[in-house]
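[Q] Does anyone have a clean structure-token version of this?
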Amino acid sequence: MPRLKGDYAEFCSQIDGLIDLCANIIPLSPHHRKAVAEIALLRAFDLLQGVFQTTATKLVCGASYLDGSMANVLLQARSQTTALTNMSTHGRARPKHRLRWSQVSEIKDNCKFVVQTTEHFLTTLTFHSSIIDEMRNVRNRIAHNNADSRTKYQVVVRRHYGAEMKHISPGTLLLSDRFIPRLINQYLAQSKVLVKQMLKG
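[A] Here you go.
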């Protein structure tokens, strides 16, 4: 029987490591502090995407939440590979060739034929969709820096600064003393809260 307890513990350990990393960047130059904060955000969002996928596939394979309750599964699978295959093909006129896990709407679409739409895992993601979107937009600005990512990143800047400010880099945003705690610390802490609630921890 698959279990989520180990995945939750590993996620928390990894996020705690990033929190510790960001708490020890003072000796670095401003340039390097910003680089570390950006790397921490990239890593945190990758961890989130991973735990979203793992949670969905393990619930479909019969794993319980951390409180022992079971998910309302429409199509159970015997392995995570089969679960992903079912998400890609079951109930679809055309298979999804790539399952994405970075947006709540995508995750819901991945799961819609194998898990009840009202399932706790999905409703929790909906509740936290704003922070997921914000972290993704900052992450994409760091990772891609194309026109689309710059436009969506400015939505985040405007939310926090009240106006578009093209000179505000992701590293500057993440480490600004304007925000208490700093945004990188808020993102990391909120990631742990999100996953704890998602898994009924």
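[Q] Thanks! Anything notable?
[A] The chain has one domain: 5-198.
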